[in-house]
Amino acid sequence: MNISTKFRVFLLLAITLSQVNFGQATKRYSVYISNGLGNGDQLTVHCKSKDDDLGVHTLRAYEHWSWTFKVNIWKTTLYWCDINTIEHHGSFKVSAMHDDILDMCNSNECLWSARDDGLYLKDNSKDSWFLKYKWEY
Question: Which residues are CB-neighbours of 37 under 8 A, at least 6 positions away?
């Protein structure tokens, strides 16, 4: 490899790395999903990413389940959950880098609550809950 080629490779690498925010890549998030159903029904939660299957969890009334993850260097980290009750079902994105979800988890805690009309996300900056997803059926 001659000096001109080495310089081009170095320049390309420097430009690429300047576009990556390594601080975000080391940020750790905690995701909490709680059963806030008013009728006392159980909630079945199955969450996964492209690389990780977190298993099936059954939550009784007012119980919660949680996990933590780090955002990958490419900022493509995505988890989604299939959530079921006796009457309802939904498949929801619960963490996505290019969505407003993690923006609302500004304290690095994403708080979700399954309720009778759908899945709520807590906006930590406003200390308020809002309906993010309605049940699919």
Answer: 43, 61, 85, 114, 115, 116
